[in-house]
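Hey, sorry to bother you again with one of my protein questions. I've been puzzling over a protein and I'd love to understand its fold better. Take your time with it, there's no hurry, and the full record follows here:
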Amino acid sequence: MDNKELYLYGTLMALAQEQQEAISQLTSGTLGFFGKSRIQSRGREIGKLAAKIVKYKNQLGNQNVNETILADLESIKTGNFPKKYSENIVDMVKNYF
């Protein structure tokens, strides 16, 4: 992954982690009003970042963009990324592709 991909994936994964934490708080009943209002907009932002990653992969000339992205996410899942993310977060991100 180049620097732009690291930035895009890092931002995407951070948003997904925040989303998962918010959903956990929502199910436990500890999420406040502002947290509830952010869930939907955060989901839209995750979708926009996923689209940016697809667009960037297309610009790089990748033939099988989805396969490349899934391979990148598996690499992130196994710890080949500057920050470690749980399998749940990586699996949630896969749903956007």
